[in-house]
Amino acid sequence: MIDLSTDYLGLKLKNPLVPSASPLSRNLDTALQLEDAGAAALVMYSLFEEELRTEDAMLDRFLLQAGLGHSEADGFLPHHGEFQGGLERYLEHLQRLKSRLEIPVVASLNGVSLSGWVELGRALQQAGADALELNVYHVAADMLESGQAVEARYLRLLRELRSVVSIPIVMKLSPFFSSLPNFVKQLELAGAQGVALFNRFYQPDIDLDTLCVVDRLHLSYPDEALLRIRWLSILHGRTHLTLAAPGGAHSYEEALKLLLVGADVVHLASCLLQHGPARLTQILHDMESWMGEREYASVAQLKGSMSQKNLLDPAAMARASYLRVLDSFSPLPGVWS
Amino acid sequence: MGEWADEWASQGRANLWGAVPKIIEMQSEGGAAGALHGALTSGALATSFTASQGLLLMIPNLYKIAGELTPFVLHVAARTLATHALSIFGDQSDVMACRATGCALLAANSPQEAQDFALIAQAATLAGRIPVIHFFDGFRTSHEVAKIDAVGADTVRAMLDADLVAAHRTRALSPEHPVLRGTSQNPDVFFQSRERANPYYDAFPQIVQDAMDRFGELTGRHYKLFEYVGAADAERVIVLMGSGAETVHETVDHLVARGEKVGVLKVRLYRPFSPSALLDALPLTATSVAVLDRCKEPGADGEPLYKDVVTALAQASADGARAMPRVIGGRYGLASKEFTPGMVKAVFDELAQPAPRPHKGTPTFYGLKPVKDRMRQFTVGIHDDLTHLSLPWDADFRTDASRQLQHAVFWGLGADGTVSANKNSIKILGETTELMAQGYFVYDSKKSGAVTVSHLRFGPATIRSTYLVEAGMAGFVACHQPVFVDRYDVLEHAAPDGIFLLNTPAPPEQVWDTLPGKMRAQIRDRRLQVWVIDAYAVAAEAGMGRRINTIMQTCFFAISGILPKDDAIAAIKHAVDKTYGKKSKRLVELNYRAIDTTLAELHQVAIPTAEAIGNVPDFSPAMDTAARIPDFVRELTLPIYQGHGDALPVSLLPADGTYPLGTAQYEKRNIALEIPVWEPDLCTQCGKCVFVCPHTAIRSRLFPAEAAQDAPPTFKHVPAKSKDFPAGTHISYQVAPEDCTGCGDCVEACPIHDKSNVSRRAVNMAPVGPLRDPERDNFAFFLRLPEFDRSLIKHGTIPGSMLLDPLFEFSGACAGCGETPYIRLATQLFGDRMLVANATGCSSIYSGNLPSTPYTVNGAGRGPAWSNSLFEDNAEFGLGMRLAADQLMAYAQQLVKEMVTEIGGDLAEALVSADQREEAGIVDQRHRVALLLDKLASSTHPRAKELASVAEWLIRRSVWIIGGDGWAYDIGYGGLDHVLALPYDVNILVLDTEVYSNTGGQTSKATPIGAVAKFSAGGKATAKKDLAKLASDYGHVYVATVAYGAKDVQTLRVFHEAESYPGPSLIVAYSPCIAHGYDMLYNQRQQELAVKSGHWPLIRFDPRLAESGGNPFKLDSAAPSQPIQAFMDSETRFAMLARSHPEAAQRFLEQAQQDAERRFKEYQDMALDGHSGESRNLEK
Question: Searching chain B, which residue's CA lies closest to the CA of residue A208?
Answer without folding.
Answer: B758
